[in-house]
Amino acid sequence: MSIIMAHVKTVIKQASVYSRKMDRLSKRIFGEIPYELTARNARVVKAFQAMPYEENEFCIAYFPPHPMLHSLTKLLRLHGLFRDEHQDFIDELLRQRCLRGKAPPKPGEGKRAMMRRKNA
């Protein structure tokens, strides 16, 4: 009698194809991992379970927002609320070059445009 019970226990432990497929389907439905994990798969599962970098506050605030700060300082300088001495110096040099007649040519008045007019 004990031999028969042992055989029944092993039969119960061995799942049928249908029960394995249903188990896998239920795991997929409820968001569990539908198969046994290997070391390689575990690394991928861990990466997907972690918080995305875009939502992690530490990763977002790691670098200062330079492009936004640059555009804000340009806007403040335009309204006269911020003084950028280096940009003022560059503007003054450009103004002095224009007064001496050394300014860059306007569109359509450059060297190539003059050559085109000469040949046409």
TrEMBL record:
InterPro entries: Ribosomal_mS33 (IPR013219). One of its GO terms (cellular component) is ribosome. Residues 100-120 are annotated as: Disordered. Pfam families: MRP-S33 (PF08293). It is found in: Mitochondrion. Keywords: Mitochondrion, Ribonucleoprotein, Ribosomal protein. This is Small ribosomal subunit protein mS33. It comes from Trichinella pseudospiralis.
